[in-house]
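[step 3/7] fold_predict: job queued, chain A
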Amino acid sequence: MVDQAQVEEVIARIADPYLEQDYVSSGSVQSIDIDDASISVKLTFPYASGYFGSGVQQMLQGLLSSEFDEHSVTVEVDWMVRAQKTANNLPGLKGVKNIIAVASGKGGVGKSTTSANLALAMAHEGARVGLLDADIYGPSQGLMLGVADGTRPETKDEKFFVPIEAHGLQVMSMAFLVTENTPMVWRGPMVSGALQQLLTQTLWDDLDYLIIDLPPGTGDIQLTLSQKVPVTASIIVTTPQDLALLDAKKGIEMFKKVNVPVLGVVENMSTHICTNCGHEEPIFGEGGGDAIAAEYGTSLLGELPLSISIREKADSGCPSVVDDPESPIALMYMEMARRAMARLSIQNKNEGAIPVIQMSDD
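[step 4/7] structure written:
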């Protein structure tokens, strides 16, 4: 007679590469039902895993069927995203379970492209995802997601914006409120107010994850976000170049000071592969993203090459994950998205309030 312990022993042979635990230890096994002729197992992952979960289902069903060949085996794999604790115990944002801020210490490292593709990769796994373009001065997500210039969000009750749908994402950006040639000649307080309005007056609809594409640096927008927005975690984007890594450290330090967990580091332009001869060369340096992740006790979510296709797809309004989900570049983004979602589901709960910043004449 087969018992539950025997079934669990077989399930425990498979480790989740993103949770970094076997499926029994991670608590993913929801139920095991056994009778004389059948075994039924149900797993629930704590992160969006539609495509990945189907592969696990097939693997586990084959393994159990081989081990207990006198029983018919049924394996069901599902997932559920729960709202995690916010950094400073702010009340959650209506319609949003988790907010992930994507930041960089300096411009030009591919942060917006990374934000768009990560959001699309999460949606590809079945999650409900929103994307907020928080770069008030230089919004770019409308162009990257193929939203035509002049597109305006609908309003509800004369005070709420309905997010624009693009490639399955719920998207909001200052670009949808002005023309692409209109400069935002605003001082810091106006920019911070615009961010809060875009965030809180948008009717986000039952999101598992809201990705916020921050402007580069550690200024007004970042401070407003960390003090007044219920951010769950952050992701830092950099290149291997020493200058970019120096600024990336400042971004990590900023999130540490305001108690926002850093899920990991994404290293863009990690290497260049010649399209003619195939020669690979780390023209911006190498190992920087891994080193900074180790220094700050976080993980390297992924390394992306300097690829003309990433730029071309983003400029065309059809990013890599949408244009060709099976391409090597798209699969890299999906790996990064799964790692980020899994880390978010098990992140340590941070205690303590955001410190009060005081200014003096000394």
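[step 5/7] annotate
Confidence is low (pLDDT under 50) at residues 349-362.
The domain at 96-346 is CATH 3.40.50.300 (Rossmann fold).
exit 0
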